[in-house]
Amino acid sequence: MTTVAVKPATMGQALGRALRDAMADDPSVHVLGEDVGTLGGVFRVTDGLAKEFGDDRCTDTPLAEAGILGTAVGMAMYGLRPVVEMQFDAFAYPAFEQLISHVARMRNRTRGGMSLPITIRVPYGGGIGGVEHHSDSSEAYYMATPGLHVVTPATVADAYGLLRASIASDDPVVFLEPKRLYWSKADWNPDAPASVEPIGKAVVRRAGRSATLITYGPSVPVCLEAAEAARAEGWDLEVVDLRSLVPFDDETVTASVRRTGRAVVVHESGGFGGPGGEIAARVTERCFHHLEAPVLRVAGFDIPYPPPMLERHHLPGVDRILDAVARLQWEAES
Amino acid sequence: MTVMEQRGAYRPAPPPAWQLRTDPAPLLPDAEPYRVLGTDAARKADQELLLRLHGELVRGRRYNTQATALTKQGRLAVYPSSTGQEACEIAAALALREQDWLFPSYRDTLAAVARGLDPVAALTLLRGDWHTGYDPREYRIAPLCTPLATQLPHAVGLAHAARLKGDDVVALAMVGDGGTSEGDFHEALNFAAVWQAPVVFLVQNNGFAISVPLAKQTAAPSLAHKAVGYGMPGRLVDGNDAVAVHEVLSEAVRHAREGGGPTLIEAVTYRMEAHTNADDATRYRKDADVEAWQDHDPILLVERELTERGLLDDDRRRAVREDAEAMAADLRARMNEDPALDPMDLFTHVYAEQTGQLREQAAQLRAELDAENEPDGAGR
Prior knowledge:
Chain A is of the alpha/beta class.
């Protein structure tokens, strides 16, 4: 038996591999977007696809997000599985009408007669020193639209598995790629990449007893770091990585919070009207009698994404998470 | 001698020669809309086609009046009548083959019906029992689209996909004059031309976007002129001349099918009714303007030609009228039946597999329905 070659790979490489394998397995998978062909994408995620599969399978489109997603709708209507790239979070906004008026509801408006298996890749979030319009966390907009799945990986293995699952899904998936994790590395076997559980399953990244950090995407490594730091304070924190915002895994989250009795939701996007409000409400509804303290949120400020030289003050870091954990000692304060 | 002149030996290399990518002349539309009926060319129009168009136009007009009546009876929430525009709707749809696809806007019910869609299924959106009353794949008709011009990129994508698969399919995308101002119109035409997708764009210029006249919509010489900027041919046609519409559409469809790429066609017509029954057209146009178009009615134009050629006698008129009345009676009878609705359908078609959240909400509605149906549940 040969030994399995496990070597360090980046999240970007795993995403590219997922696209390649999906295209090789299923001739109906087509990649399209601005710069995805010859350049291989501005983050090189689509590198080599046009060369291997040709321009018809990996297509450089005109620069027009509504056109990219709108034509993908028609391609999906004809039986293809388009994977579109939006290049940067804030560049996706021109495509919102196509997303909300058509992509999200084609199955519903045709009473199940026509589904749209489109994957929409959106590099999102800050922390890479991007200038204005390159660092938004727009997940709340997508979550608020029925008919869409919204997923976001936090590890190299999940990046591969979740993207394969998204492309295979018969429903449209908004696949949020945490930009600042593109270069994160992990030991990974590119020759036998593992699949993941179906879309909609959260995972406990770190088991703990004293409180649960509920998080996803770019904030997962931050929460894991905070959990390590909290040990010095006597806190044993559990970290739940949601992986999928829609569907939402109430089961895993509820089980964790019932065990620990305390919860903090952590994300980069603004707190007001953000995902944390929904998550905190769901946790409270299901775990009220198990809670020792209110569910807290650690989020980005409610401001337009700041210029890169100030973004470290905006992004939730270890200290802000630890401050919230300290506030979970509700009995002592009241 | 200046310093610059002393350095005169320096000559920058000229930039690469700039030239037009395409000669615009063949793409430009004619100055006048193309017409057949009322000209000598009409004598050459195929007799079978003329008779078919006449029958369909009369049926289409009757459909419009019946559907409008149904709004007054409360059977339809709204009906955007295409009275006056029947030639664009029907002649365009008849230019397609079975394997082709139609991408209609909300006013294009008649095009869908002319393509074989059940007249009742075409009205589901407007009756309010479901958004689309048919499976688009069965008829190759996309759902009637209410947001303006958003269906145009779908047509491009579908046509592109069909061509990639090696299929002999053309997509016909319909939009109004107002829709040409939308960004999706631009993006769709640009993609179609760059990809040389087999698409035909038909703009029905009926004079108004609800109340806003064309002059406030565009400063272009014509809507067909917009084609040149995208690198596709633009054609201008009399939208009330069914034979001319059929000829121009057929030519564009053939051109697309043979790999020639997209065409933009502007059909000049007039909306004889208000935008919908919710609109008061007297606020923005004069009765005299509407009357001026009466003489150019699409049915009248075909009947004149048929009469001239001795193809329309009283028997023929009666047969066509009776056929239209039978269609209207059937439509009326079936639209007056209350549709059978299952509220649980609300949760059935959101995702391929229901999410936990939707399962909980479905259970909630189920309990509410059960409570309503209990014999003593009246007070709840």
